[in-house]
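Format notes (please read before filing issues)

Several people have asked whether sequences and structure tokens are stored in separate files. They are not. Every record keeps both together, in the order shown below: the sequence lines, then the token lines. Line labels are part of the format and must not be stripped during preprocessing.
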Amino acid sequence: MPDHIFLADPHPIGENDTLISYFSKYKNMRIEGHISQVKEQEDFFRKLVVDEFSKYENVKAMEVGFNAGHSALIILESHPNVELTSFDIGEFKSAFIGSWFLKNKYPNRFKIVWGDSKTTIPEIPDSERYDFIFIDGGHDHLTAMKDLKNCKRLTHENTLVVMDDTIYFDGPRYSWEVAKKEGWIVEIGTKDFNHREIGGKGMSWGRYIL
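Then the structure lines:
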């Protein structure tokens, strides 16, 4: 599902364009909630990623729920040798615009897989292993649990998994708590950024028990 099919006439990407400035070229663009809405969370996530990536010479990262690309951009900026594969259902035009921008900015380090993550992630070969996984996909109970479970086989003992919205949203919160209770996730930390005026912001991170 190539991006250009959904962007029949994409705006040119300027040399100095940022993701934000590129989005401004598209009028009335709907962008769902994202990690850069709250600067405290954006800064915290960036530091978490940079610190984790500093352990590696080369990093393989995976993201479930690309949305408009804000978290993907942070991941790509955090290490010169990180390769990111994002998964997104492709519900909003902003996802195609953001992925078009990142593919042009990071042509050899970023790719995206379109479709329902409950189907696309199980199709990844068992031989694949990721050093970092960020899960911010569907927030219903079924999708959040499936995403968290389906990523487990793609990890090694040091893989860091971060799940967004584990405090204020039932699906991610329930899934993360079940994983801890059942003993296949060990939590390292949880951070509440509050901001209930936009539904609340928070995330948790840890490692799978293999």
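For reference, the curators noted about this record: The CA atoms of residues 26 and 87 lie 23 Å apart. The helical segments are 3-6, 19-23, 39-53, 70-77, 93-105, 117-120, 141-150, 170-182.
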